[in-house]
Amino acid sequence: MINLTDVSKGFGATTLFEKVNMTFSPGRRYGLTGPNGAGKSTFMRILTGDEEADSGRIGLPDKVGILRQDQHAFDEHTVMDTVVQGNQRLWAVNQEKEVLYAKGDQLTEADGERLAELEMIVAEEDGYMAEVNAGELLAGLGIKDQLHYSTMGELPASIKVRALLAQALFGEPQVLLLDEPTNHLDLDCIDWLKRFLCRYQGSLIVISHDRHFLNEVCTHIADIDYETIIPYPGNYDDMVEAKMAVRGRVEADQEQRLEKINQLNDFIQRFRAGSRASQVKSRERQVTKLTPTELKKSNIQKPFIRFKVEQQPGKDVVRIEEASLAFPERGPHEPAITVLKNAGLHIGRDERIAIVGPSGSGKTALLNLVAGQLAPNSGSVTLGHNVNFGFYAQDNFGAIEPGSSLLEWLHNKRPAESQETVRGCLGQMLFGREECFKKTDHLSGGERARLLFSELMLLQHNLLFLDEPTNHLDLESISALGEGLAAFKGTCIVATHNQDLISAFATRIWALTPKGMVDYPGDYDSFRGKHGSLR
Predict the structure, then answer these.
(1) Residue 20 CB: number of other CB atoms within 10 A?
(2) Residue 45's closest CA among 216, 207, 212?
(3) Confidence (pLDDT) at 429
(4) 199 and 128, same structural domain?
(5) Mean pLDDT of the chain
(6) Considering the domain boundaries, does residue 306 fall inside one?
(7) Using H for helix, E for strand and C for coil, what is the string for 308-348?
(8) Rounded-to-integer distance, Cα 530 and Cα 512, Å
């Protein structure tokens, strides 16, 4: 259980939440929601002790599982030891045991008694099954047995993050605090995590930008809005429906009050100087009682993403003929992979393709191959007549040059376009009038993503390549992207692990599996129904 008493936090003139009183109960799984910048990660850091609240008290149990964000904190430890450190009591006891046993013949009677006490604690913490339990978590998260005793520092970031997630889940914590646990997980791992969390009996607080994940896992939502944290029963979609209904009722009540006030004021103005002074005063008192308090503005805003097509391509958008793409083993932790083998594929107009597969299966490589940014080992990839494509890269840190305003940067991408049109594209991605003049030098990940989507809308490509586009987008932006891709009159190929996005737009699935690529003409749900796991 987690208890909050009068907890407040803000930065400068901005209040994130104020005097929050709330209990997160055992057996309930809370999704922590709110747009980027609302304070979700700040609230999570307050709970983990990595940041202080401005005021208030927080009560936590002793055993808390935390998804750590520092990928290098355990570089000197093996993967197995990293996971076991999720139970700090067990880890500390095992460390003390090692020190005592190292004494060998020098063990005293007191040391022997202490060892007996420590063995009792190990039994209480199920320590004799620790490596077995940790191994099951690692396997569920797609980390192969041969990596369990590798040093964390040797491993790529995608495996480190999953090991840290296993650490948070280990040891039956009373509370679980998970900030973006689906990052670096493929769809099979996400399915495993959903099943694990749905069996969890403690108090869970999770931040995720995957609507599908929140809907399947959460029994409650804690929404940061109106400078507070509001609990809602049900999953994410239930919360949105309830929130809109409450807001609608409040706004309707405000309108009724204002209409009544206008009627009263009309009476007051007509009879103020006459003989009906007592009635005027009565109505003035009514106006005072009816005057509504200022309605706080919700921080939920949804972009409007629509990709227009300036020029239609020919019937054949991309043709892949006898193409092979493979990579040799690049180290003990990066095995050889075959992405394509003598593949013949055709992409026509208006197709919407999702590329899915386990982590490290070559999704980004396949996207780069089709876009002509990576050559096949053999065969050919040919873009069709009048094809004009845009590419949203997963690693887009260097895609925006520093030194100009957002408006200048975007206008330079299409100088012949009117400034009004350029501003419109920025506005669709929630950049207000003043924000258009913000410099490109110090953009957050979310701002960078929104600017790059503004560019894609402005340039009106007829073919879009998107590599993990949901990174840095909040739930409302992901929903808007899905709607934009579904309405797109061109062709799109998207590599993503976000099931909600895939379900929103994809009409064809390219699945990279250990047995080879599967080209499935249908949506993701029907693909999984027919083919099952991607591993």
Answers:
(1) 22
(2) 207
(3) 94
(4) yes
(5) 89
(6) no
(7) CCCCCCCCEEEEEEEEEEEECCCCCCCCCEEEEEEEEEEEE
(8) 15
| 269 C-beta neighbours (distance < 10 Å), count | 10
Helix (H) or strand (E) run with residue 399 in it: none
Q: Phi and psi for 511 in degrees, rounded to 5?
A: -110, 125
Among residues 234, 251, 280, the one where a domain terminates is 234
Query: Checking DSSP bridges between strand 491-495 and strand 463-467, what pairing results, if any?
Result: parallel
Both 423 and 524 in one domain: the answer is yes
- Single-letter amino acid code for the residue at 407: L
- One domain, residues 191 and 277: no
Q: Which segments of 468-520 are extended strands (E)?
A: 491-495, 508-513, 516-520
Residue type, 136: E
User: The whole model's pTM is what?
Assistant: 0.81
CA distance 262 to 310: 50
CA separation for the pair 25, 98 (Å, rounded): 38
Looking at the structure, tell me whether residues 252 and 332 fall in a common domain: no
Residue 355 tokens, joined: 């590329």
Asked if residue 84 lies in contact with residue 131, where contact means CB atoms within 8 angstroms, the answer is yes
Predicted local confidence at residue 275, as pLDDT: 64
How distant, in Å, are the alpha carbons of 55, 176, 177, 194, 255 from that of 62? 22, 12, 13, 25, 49
First to last CA, the chain: 37
- The CA–CA distances, whole Å, from 318 to 349, 383, 511, 516, 534 equal 9, 5, 18, 20, 25
C-alpha span between 121 and 115 (Å, rounded): 10
Neighbours of 246 (CB within 10 A): 12
Based on the fold, state whether residues 331 and 448 are members of the same structural domain. yes
**The pair of three-digit structure tokens given for residue 389, joined into one six-digit string:** 């494509």
What does the DSSP assignment read for 6-23?
EEEEEETTEEEEEEEEEE
Range of the domain at 371: 316-531
Nearest to 64 by CA among 85, 91, 86: 86
CA distance 64 to 50: 14
Res 52: pLDDT: 93
- pLDDT tens-place string over residues 385-418: 999 999 999 887 788 998 899 999 999 999 999 9
Distance, CA of 11 to CA of 53 (rounded, Å): 11
What pLDDT was estimated at residue 494?
97
Same domain flag for 157 and 194: yes
Distance of alpha carbon 514 from the chain centroid: 27
Cα–Cα distance for residue pair 138/424, rounded to 1 Å: 47
Same domain for 510 and 363? yes
- Spatial contact of 178 and 200, defined as CB atoms under 8 Å apart: no
Among residues 64, 93, 239, 248, the alpha carbon closest in space to that of 169 is found at 64
Q: What is the pLDDT of residues 421-477, one digit of tens each?
A: 999 999 999 998 888 999 998 888 888 999 999 999 999 999 999 999 998 888 889
Query: What's the rounded Cα separation, in Å, for the pair 221 and 31?
Result: 5
Query: pLDDT higher for 278 or 230?
Result: 230
Nearest to 454 by CA among 441, 26, 435: 435
Tell me, yes or no, whether 296 lies in a domain.
Answer: no
Residue 304 lies in a domain: no
